Automatic annotation (TrEMBL), chain A:
Keywords: Cell membrane, Membrane, NAD, Quinone, Translocase, Transport. This is NADH-quinone oxidoreductase subunit C. The gene is nuoC. The keyword Membrane applies. NCBIfam families: NuoC_fam, PRK07785.1. HAMAP family: NDH1_NuoC (MF_01357). GO terms for cellular component: plasma membrane. It comes from Nocardiopsis sinuspersici. Its EC number is 7.1.1.-. Residues 1-12, 62-72 have a biased composition (Basic and acidic residues).
Automatic annotation (TrEMBL), chain B:
Coiled coil: none annotated. NDH-1 shuttles electrons from NADH, via FMN and iron-sulfur (Fe-S) centers, to quinones in the respiratory chain. The immediate electron acceptor for the enzyme in this species is believed to be a menaquinone. Couples the redox reaction to proton translocation (for every two electrons transferred, four hydrogen ions are translocated across the cytoplasmic membrane), and thus conserves the redox energy in a proton gradient. HAMAP family: NDH1_NuoD. Transmembrane segments: none annotated. PROSITE patterns: COMPLEX1_49K. This is NADH-quinone oxidoreductase subunit D.
Length: 252, 431
């Protein structure tokens, strides 16, 4: 018996590199190694983590960690939202609004399907046990490697009644950058959604007047996307083209 | 200039032409561009006003004239360099911007509890001084826009006293980059406490003078009472926070509701008024300044000797700064140590300063009660030495949406009062 065990252990040891390599290839996160940075000019040599496929972080109940006072009301909020939406958040029903729940750094994040965003926002505002009266706007985030969910729209809600704070995130692919507008529920999001459209190209369906807000009206492209360069854009002004600063003069 | 059947667009051109065309038609409506270059629009705010005689029937806001791409730029700099950018957003509340940013970064790093006590006290003290400086500018520019230049000169004079302290502590009057992830860039220089004590003695008198000048001034009351009213439901729908919300009757203050930097240890009141008009906002701001003085005084009592930067050498900036003949720089001792004492110290200094530290992947939202309202910083890290994304929820940006609700139906003169009472700073609005 003992020799069998030893042999198994030996085989395992012999195959260890292969096993590790297989694990590495199948890991959801691809590491590019020490010197993977070629484009950003990051001198630390940190190549960044490339996420392969989706590796969504998902927290399991209980969301409240007795050792972390910041998480004290997370279970209550999750229960209330679940009850108000009338479904489980684990995705058992095909039309589940909340894809997953994430608890990290003392913050509660609901990842919501975009079709359900407006409904979730309405429930968050109107349900007496939730009462998130204040939306502090939406922030676009661009993850070019998160295939099929490249654009994220991240909302923060604050309840003054219950003194609670949550985050709601929804995603849309680059090819179909549509997210429902929640201006009808939270009028304050008017400009915030215009900003996210301006900088990320997220189309908020149902917004009363989705126009650019910071960039000029005739600007091409959405500057805060990762595929948009920092600087180096020639600017047209009254018929003349002003070259980008680094091309205006040759410093030879 | 174009004339259509029912309105005259005075968005540019010769004023004489506008008047001539206006006289030729029976149209009463006039669409006027106020700004972006106008002395009473706080920088480069553009107001598009539809006027019917003296009445403003429609008010729309155009922004973006001061957009500098700070959020995009942050993604190309280290986490520490970020403070240099964010301090330039709302340039009247630089220390709030820095604190919100640093709190978010510290949350991502998981070092919120390890920031030294002294650093937190200094942060609170600097923020409260900054709140007063910002409110003084709010009063001063407000007075100037109503034609009261004494209010303007007084307000800026009092603010200068605070800026002198900022200059002593950080080296700069604004754009400090003083608060850094892990603490503050350097300890208070000798003489600071004495200078702040002087300020604490002098400032109540100055505030009293301003109160005497404005509190019951009939002209001021006529221009501010019942002007630009916005009730609590309107505030909630439009996401309004800060002095504007408190002037509409809700005692909501993040310093009390979600304390950060140890605000739970300070005793102060949250001034509230239920007027909902410009005058109520003025009263709330005045009272807030008096509360800030209380907090600063408590900060001085709480100051204990100790480090001002986190002990962790992998995060803490080697902040051994000293004032030399050519300005602020690395102290001679530190230079001697890294140049001729320890090779490892040199490598460490070089790597930390040029590359910065890595921040674990994740997302964090940190909010502070800035002089203007809830200032939120949403930071996303991909695990590298630079932010993946940083978004600022600037209160001025959100509050400017209320211009239409406050101004429509009022007179043109009240538009000035309304915008001034919002106290927008375009550096923060446009980022």
């Amino acid at each position: 018996m003992s020799t069998d065990n030893e042999r198994e252990r030996d085989e395992e040891a012999a195959n260890l590199p292969e096993k590790q390599g297989r694990e590495r290839l199948n890991a959801p996160v691809r590491r590019t190694g020490m010197f993977g940075a070629t484009t950003t000019g990051d001198t630390s040599g940190y190549g960044g983590l490339r996420v392969r496929g989706s590796a969504p972080a998902r927290s399991r109940r209980p969301f409240t960690d007795p050792d972390d006072p910041r998480t004290a009301d997370f279970d209550r909020v999750a229960d209330a939202l679940e009850a108000a939406l009338g479904e489980g958040e684990e995705g058992s029903a095909p039309k589940a609004s909340v894809e997953r729940v994430e608890v990290a750094l003392g913050e509660l994040t609901f990842h919501v399907r975009r079709e359900a965003l407006l409904e979730v926002a309405r429930v968050l505002r109107d349900d007496p046990s939730l009462r998130y009266e204040l939306c502090t706007g939406v922030a676009g985030v661009h993850f070019p490697d998160d295939t099929g969910r490249e654009l994220h729209a991240v909302y923060h809600f604050r309840s003054l009644t219950h003194n609670s704070e949550i985050r709601v995130a929804t995603t849309c692919p680059d090819a179909d950058p549509h997210v429902p507008s929640i201006v009808s529920v939270y009028p304050t999001n008017d400009w915030h959604e215009r900003e996210a459209w301006d900088f990320f190209g997220i189309v908020f369906d149902g917004h009363p007047a989705l126009t650019r807000i910071q960039m000029p009206d005739d600007w091409h492209g959405h500057p805060q996307r990762k595929d948009y360069p920092l600087g180096g854009i020639p600017v047209e002004y009254r018929g003349a083209t002003v070259p980008p600063p680094d091309e205006r003069r040759s410093y030879k | 200039m174009t004339v259509t059947e029912d309105y005259i667009d005075a968005s540019g051109g010769d004023w004489d032409d506008v008047i001539e065309k206006a006289q030729a038609t029976s149209a009463e409506r006039l669409v006027v561009n106020m700004g972006p270059q106008h002395p009473s629009t706080h920088g480069v705010l553009r107001l598009i006003l539809t006027l019917d005689g003296e009445t403003c029937t429609e008010a729309r806001v155009g922004i973006g004239y001061l957009h500098t791409g700070i959020e995009k730029n942050l993604e190309y700099r280290t986490w520490t360099q970020g403070t240099t950018f964010v301090t330039r957003m709302d340039y009247l509340t630089p220390l709030f911007n820095e604190t919100a940013y640093c709190l978010a970064v510290e949350k991502l790093l998981g070092i919120t509890d390890r920031v030294p006590e002294r650093a937190s006290v200094i942060r609170v003290m600097m923020m409260e001084l900054n709140r007063m400086a910002s409110h003084f500018v709010a009063m001063a520019t407000f007075g100037m826009e109503l034609g009261a230049t004494t209010v303007m000169t007084n307000g800026f004079r009092e603010r200068e006293m605070i800026l002198d302290i900022f200059e002593l502590v950080t080296g700069l009057r604004m754009n400090h980059a003083y608060i850094r992830p892990g603490g503050v860039s350097q300890d208070l220089p000798p003489g600071t406490v004495g200078k702040i004590r002087e300020l604490l003695k002098e400032m109540p008198k100055r505030i009293r003078v301003m109160r005497k000048l404005l509190d019951e001034n009939p002209v001021y009351l006529a221009r501010t009472r019942d002007v630009a009213h916005l009730g609590l439901p309107g505030c909630m729908a439009l996401g309004i926070t800060g002095p504007l919300l408190r002037a509409s009757g809700l005692s909501w203050d993040l310093r009390k509701a979600k304390p950060y930097c140890g605000y739970e240890d300070y005793e102060f009141d949250v001034p509230v008024s239920d007027g909902g008009d410009v005058y109520a906002r003025y009263r709330v701001r005045m009272a807030e300044m008096e509360e800030s003085l209380k907090i600063v005084e408590q900060c001085l009592d709480k100051l204990r000797p100790g480090p001002v930067m986190i002990k962790d050498a992998k995060i803490g900036w080697p902040a051994k700064l000293a004032l030399g003949p050519d300005g602020l720089g690395n102290s001679p001792d530190h230079i001697a140590h890294i140049m001729s004492g320890s090779m490892e110290a040199l490598i460490h200094h070089f790597k930390l300063v040029t590359e910065g530290f890595r921040v674990p992947a994740g997302q964090a939202y940190a909010a502070v009660e800035s002089a203007k309202g809830e200032l939120g910083c949403y930071a996303v890290s991909d695990g590298g030495t630079r932010p993946h994304r940083v978004h600022f929820r600037d209160p001025s940006f959100t509050h400017l949406q209320a211009v239409a609700a406050m101004c429509e139906g009022g007179t043109v003169a009240d538009v000035i009062a309304a915008v001034a009472s919002i106290d927008p700073v375009m550096g923060g609005v446009d980022r």
